[in-house]
Amino acid sequence: MSPVVFVPIFEILKSFYFFADVDRMSSDGGLPALLNGDIVDVAAVQRRAWLGLSCWPLHRRLAWELVLGVASPLAASRSLQSRRLVGEYCAQLAKWREAATVDDLTASPVGRKSDGTSPNSSGRGSLGVDGAVVGIVQTTSGNSSVPSLSFDSSTDVFVANEELAIIKQIRKDVPRSTGGMAALAHSRSQTLLERVLFVWALRHPACGYVQGMNDLAVPFVCVVIADELRMPPEDLFSTKCHGDALVSTIPADAWEARIEPAVYWMTSRFIERLQDNFTGNQRGAHRMVADLEAIVKAADPSLWKSIVTVSDVPFALFSFRWINCLLQRELSFAPALRLMDTYVADEIPVVSFHPYVCAAFLLRFRPLVLAHARDLGTLLPVLQNLPTQSWAVRDVDELVASAFVLSHRHPIN
Questions:
Q1: What is the helix, strand, coil percentage profile of the chain, to 5?
Q2: Rounded CA separation 74/41 (Å)
Q3: pLDDT tens-digit profile of 120-135?
């Protein structure tokens, strides 16, 4: 069977009813005009975001916040809602900070060594801005009112055992998320990402922190920091940009007052859509892997046979990372951000659409896969490292278009 034909995204999508106003949006000033209204049509923003926001990088943050319900569609109410969410987030931080200063532990302030310096000069040891660490919280499994404590030498504080395990895992994962981007490797950016993930885990005990969440949080970190600097995120987080120097210019009070709460709420609202991927036995992720295999088998039986039968490679072995990280590890920053536009928009729910995107992704490399389909040892390394280094935003436009076609040709019940 011939592979899926990749066609321009607008030629396919504009013919469907929920994209009927794309031309009107373009002629009326596009996304900026839509966002500047007194009352924003969130459904229209959602449709536009699904098609990609790379043409309007300075408007991406507000568009994402509106679609995720973090920002109010009423311009007059937006600042009030923002203050409410910031207050709610900071109240949670204050509660956990108070829990950390128990009995005689107050002699060593949370997040600071006894000499007042930051506990880790590299910036990786602290979960707080300017050294403020989210400390112990009540354990979720026991009935005792006193948490079981362990000493964390990297922060000089006592934390509950469960929270200590979360902190350690987050600190392993966050440095791997930089992708060679200096702005993201900056200690403030790393601290921000650590703390957002930690707070998420504490507020969602049924889910906690699971590897892969760090990859899903990175786009929100990048978009909010870039917006604070009024720069396109594709420029600030380019591997060619000395973004660490620019991040250093952000005022200290801006991190907790504006940046961190915005990142947290967007990340939280987004991951909540995918919680089945991270709870229990990750049944949501396994279901999507099964859907991916079913789509490929229906769309291109010969490709499926070459992978599963000829090469004896189970789909889960190479695609679980694609599913769990939404292909963020497979793409460079600008294409990955473009794909997140579609997933944040959720015009077609991400849990339903993502397997089709992964199928289109695999079909895109059909010749390469077939050329290496001999055995597991030969094919698996190829599938785990498909060559996307030269991909641009346009490639993701085509990927989304092809996935959309697949979803109509091979619907999954």
A1: 60, 5, 35
A2: 10
A3: 333 333 333 333 333 3
